[in-house]
Amino acid sequence: MQFAGRRKSSLVGAGAGAGAGAFDPFGTNKHSASLRKGGRLPVYVAGVFFFVFVIIMYGEDIRSVTLDPIALAGPAATQPAAVFPGGAGGVVAPRRDVLSSPEKKGADDAVKTLPRRDDERPAERTAATTTTETAPAQGIRKVGGDISKKATKKARRQRAAKKTVAPAVTISTPETCDLSKGEWVLDNASYPLYREEECSFLTSQVTCMRNGRRDDNYQKWRWQPSECDMPRFDAKVFMERLRGKRLMFVGDSLNRNQWESMVCLVQSAVSPDKKYVTWEDQRVVFHAWEFNATVEFYWSPFLVESNSDNPKIHSIQHRIIDAESIAAHAENWRHADYLVFNTYIWWMNTLNMKLRRPAGQSWEEHDEVVRIEAYRKVLTTWARWVNENVDPARTSVFFMSMSPLHLSPQVWGNPDGIRCAKETMPLLNWNGPIWLGTDWDMFKVASNVSREASPRVPITFVDITTMSERRKDGHTSVHTIRQGQILTPEQQADPGTYADCIHWCLPGVPDIWNSILYTRIMSRPEPARVTAS
Questions:
Q1: Among 100, 180, 204, 253, which one carries the catalytic annotation?
Q2: What is the pLDDT of residue 11?
Q3: What's the pTM?
Q4: Residues 6+ apart with CB under 8 A from 465
Q5: Catalytic residue among 252, 337, 500, 511
Q6: Under 8 Å between Cβ of 111 and 96
Q7: Is 50 exceeded by the pLDDT of residue 247?
Q8: Strand partners, 347
């Protein structure tokens, strides 16, 4: 009864206070007095503050778990499966031997970052999407299945940053500096720019160390221009320049060689679970999700259309070129922001080229034309397309000069050598030209057409020929593949038959080509842009 008495006393006291003051129809003063008398007011206030604190600090987390589950799907659910070139239209995963490193760790990492077949995907994610991405310019939102507080706060900060104006980054190398003149300098401290085993996107064609090469000095040569300094390639800076953009290499296997180099140069700036490669007929694409960017290669060895446009099925002896037709290929390039073209090596098999007649109804209706004239016709068609279809305010166009072959060791003073096999040093302190068989008339045609045939759209001619002629040590030689298989020990012992003195080991010479490309792109100012949230 003592408890009841206390309760009654409290009510009476509250009522007396109410009667002495203003009329309280809702009993607010009674309730407040009760809390004060009972000593529960601090607990009540603390509870209110705690509730407000939770709402403020974790509101974003609460909202995130209420979003559409499809919007929150991870990369295994949203990334498209790869389609191999020359395939029958079936959707398959990229070859593991092509896109993964030899070490188990590298292979595991590659599997994590590459598209999986439907039967390899985790069951909880396979229902999220079954479509193939067809618009690389569209960003793919990557949100992990387990959303931690730290990851959510990081994502929130990134979203806020998109609303600000990003300042442009430029470098100070002048356009007037001729980057093609200089010398090779051994640089053990700064090179290579990446490690072979760290880039799981390299193909077996260019992984020379994995394929048995024992010396690695070919990876450590830096190009030093005579007239200026060339900046070191900065992957993060370059990916910021590529944010929301497409960089596309178009041409033959040497441009694919350069594409692989570029992918390895930039991939370190992309989070491990936000990058992958897809193969789509004649196009192979490196996707960088968090930058909404792609680095692409499009197979078009003559730039114009030909009967050898299938990257897997073509004949050297029966190559026929349609010198005036380019539209079918060009539709794939039209909306790229940076276009890097080349065409050379497929012209070097014969002195005359077969050109389809303008009114020909089939490939059988063709004429043989002197190589240099055919080359000029093709490049004129290409330059005309660039001039009529490219928006110079948006797209930058480059043409890479020819990559040299090293087939005659007596030319560089090694009469007992066999092609480029066992070459371990560049040509240093060499005066005058090296007669490697480079067609300098074709070089001049490419330079002139790039400069003159597209008056509305500037085309930057990038001279890589002279510097590359000194790099007899950089080719894949016998440390490569033939018909998809790594050369056997018996084949490696026969460099006269099997040495590849056309393509280049990676890391290696193509990294320098891309450093020049990087220098030219980054030396041109880019207006600050506002990215939509």
A1: 253
A2: 37
A3: 0.70
A4: 180, 401, 402, 403, 404, 438, 443
A5: 500
A6: yes
A7: yes
A8: none
